[in-house]
Design goal:
This protein is mainly β. It folds into four domains: 316 residues, Neuraminidase, CATH 2.120.10.30; 79 residues, Immunoglobulin-like (Sandwich), CATH 2.60.40; 82 residues, Immunoglobulin-like, CATH 2.60.40.1120; 116 residues, 60s Ribosomal Protein L30, Chain: A, CATH 3.30.1330. 9% of the residues lie in helices and 41% in strands. It contains six helices and 41 strands. β13 and β14 form a beta hairpin.
């Protein structure tokens, strides 16, 4: 949306605040399971396709879809009804309605109510769940400096009586200094979110909400710093009463405006997450809405390949292909010894229990069965000395079945992100057995699940580590029966960061220790370098300079060489942690900049000298 920078152009230049219209956030909340939202937030797009809605998109602008009753409403320009010329039609934005057909595509177009569409620009709006009350954004002509006219954004409201919308009235008093825009109403109709550049926020445009108490709206309340930044937060849209989507041009996104989702409690946000590709792209992406069919969503993007500048896209489930036979492979193994098991009977049946196949694994523990692609089945294993295993599956990927000996006890678990309450796949989990001096290792599956078979009367403990999380250790008592556990991983915190990241800023690493006249980092003192590696990973555009200092003992020229070697040693360590070497430059300043009295000729303690042996991190690019 290349018109972003027209936010403040005046009326006399005959331009408008286009960005206020590009966030048409209409909201009609119904009781539903947001299946597609869960998949989007987990980055699971394999079963979906993103389709340009060519039935309504043109070379002009179509954006900000909104589910309203049995239709979808959006904002567009380039239409000539009620306009004097094509150029005027191209400049002005109105509201239009389309329908969702049986294939979840958008077809047909009619203007929304003439009372809501005016000679000004209309855009972002929200309805109550009955569809009888609307709050919407409109350009509002106010007095500017030197009696000039200027166009700010304001929120208007209207009610429908006997099928007719009333004359809109302003929700907030007219203001010639700042704007109110992008309303989104909760299901009870008593909390309204919006965006504004009013004074007192965290940046340019922040998200706010107001609450209705005994029929009166409160003063605006800032949603908080979890959502709002020094950049622009716009287009709030409630996906549920506890989930708010919005767009922001903050750094570290994918490009332009990106769609984020915030979790809410008592109106304010307590967590924020950037939605992944391919929903977000290198272009502007806004206005995510969930269809009444919870497997379908719509949004707006200016990504390449569309019909015009901004287009409406649908996220749809991929159509099922006709069922064809596929070879399903099984490998059966002993869960503890990881030895392949021959002569295991595998019985396969349909979901309703009708057997379709039964066979024995060969000497390599393998078996193949020809089944129908895309159809759900259930397998069951049988072999003397091992417990039966049964589960549902859909043919396609090869499966490894691990059988538990009758002489051991099942320990099942799941690895979770404690803060986000989300499963962690591909995590290494180690079970250390005291009784057998053995370590068993498992890798969590796509749902974060793992399983061990623990010998009876054997003490053990779990040891696990995950990238960007603190290491985890869990002692287990002697097991006498099957057990299920949850491993809660806590995200590593970057404690070296005392102030906001800014170019030219300095981070001092206080606890990297070197022995006198040596460049090797003392073992066990790498924690701050690990945190620096995490910080660089979290900020992929950041570039730094490592500046090393020595104490005053030894030759001054040799200390410059020594400090440069220490900086190089730290750089090598960061590279070993996956940081690109091109992001790091180094410098050695020797004893030239002590932090205390310990200069040449001054008698100091070892602790005082240690205080001067330090590493500084200068931010060159963030």
């Amino acid at each position: 949306m290349h018109m972003y920078h027209f936010f403040t152009i005046s009326y006399y230049k005959q331009r408008v605040i286009i960005i206020g219209l590009i966030a048409f956030q209409c909201f009609y909340l119904t009781a539903q399971n947001n299946d597609i939202l869960s998949d989007i937030m987990n980055g699971q797009f394999n079963d979906y396709e993103i389709i340009n809605q060519s039935g309504i998109n043109t070379s002009a602008l179509e954006f900000s879809p909104c589910i309203y009753l049995d239709s979808l409403v959006y904002v567009a320009n380039g239409r000539t009804e009620g306009r004097k010329s094509k150029s005027q039609a191209a400049s002005y934005f109105n509201l239009y309605k389309t329908f969702i057909d049986q294939e979840n595509h958008l077809v047909g177009e009619t203007p929304l109510s003439g009372v809501l569409n005016s000679t000004f620009h209309e855009g972002p709006l929200t309805f109550n769940k009955e569809g009888t009350e609307v709050f919407f954004t409109r350009n509002n002509q106010v007095e500017g400096a030197r009696n000039q006219k200027k166009m700010n954004l304001s929120i208007f409201t209207s009610t429908k009586v006997n099928g007719i919308w009333s004359k809109p009235i302003e929700l907030f008093a007219s203001n010639n200094e700042f704007s109110f825009c992008h309303p989104s109403l909760n299901s009870a109709g008593d909390r309204l979110y919006f965006s504004s550049n009013m004074p007192g926020g965290y940046g340019n445009y922040d998200l706010y909400f107001i609450e209705k108490v005994t029929g009166i709206w409160s003063s605006p309340i800032n949603v908080g710093s979890v959502v709002n930044t020094g950049d622009n937060e716009l287009f709030p849209n409630l996906l549920s009463d506890e989930t708010l989507s919005f767009s922001s041009n903050r750094p570290n996104g994918l490009g332009g405006l990106d769609i984020y989702v915030a979790e809410l409690k008592d109106g304010k946000a307590y967590s924020t997450e950037l939605l992944p590709e391919p929903l977000n792209s290198g272009s502007d992406d806004i206005s995510l809405v969930i269809s009444p069919d919870p497997s379908v969503a719509f949004f707006t993007s200016s990504r390449p390949g569309g019909a015009g500048q901004d287009d409406i896209y649908a996220i749809l489930p991929k159509k099922q292909k006709p069922s064809t036979p596929v070879d399903q492979s099984f490998v059966v193994m002993d869960s503890i010894k990881l030895k392949r098991l021959a002569n295991v009977t595998i019985t396969i049946s349909t979901d309703d229990g009708n057997p379709v196949y039964s066979g024995l694994t060969d000497r390599n523990g393998s078996l193949k069965a020809k089944l129908q692609e895309g159809k759900s089945y259930k397998y069951e294993t049988t072999i003397l000395g091992y417990k039966k295993v049964q589960n549902n599956f859909i043919p396609g990927q090869a499966m490894t079945l691990r059988l538990l000996s009758d002489a051991c006890i099942s320990l099942k678990g799941v690895a979770m992100d404690k803060e986000k309450n989300k499963p962690l796949p591909n995590i290494e989990v180690n079970l250390v057995l005291d009784c057998e001096d053995e370590v068993m290792t498992r890798i969590t599956d796509g749902s974060g699940v793992f399983e061990f078979c623990v010998p009876q009367d054997c003490r053990s403990f779990i040891s696990s580590r995950a990238k960007d999380y603190y290491d985890l250790k869990l002692n287990l008592a002697t097991m006498t029966e099957e057990k299920q556990i949850t491993l809660e991983f806590i995200k590593e915190q970057v404690s070296i960061l005392k102030d906001p990241i800014k170019v030219g800023g300095t981070i001092i690493l206080e606890n990297i220790y070197y022995d006198f006249n040596k460049s090797t980092i003392r073992p066990g003192t790498e924690r701050e370098l690990n945190e620096l590696a995490t910080l660089l990973e979290q900020n992929p555009n950041m570039e730094i300079k490592l500046v090393a200092h020595t104490d005053s003992r030894g030759d001054a020229k040799e200390n410059v060489t020594l400090s440069l070697s220490r900086a190089q040693e730290a750089k090598n360590y960061l590279i070993s942690k996956g940081v690109g070497g091109d992001k790091i430059s180094i410098e050695g300043r020797g004893e030239t900049q002590p932090r205390n009295r310990c200069k040449d000729g001054v008698n100091c303690t070892e602790e005082e000298h240690q205080y001067n042996r330090r590493m500084e991190v200068i931010i060159k690019k963030k």
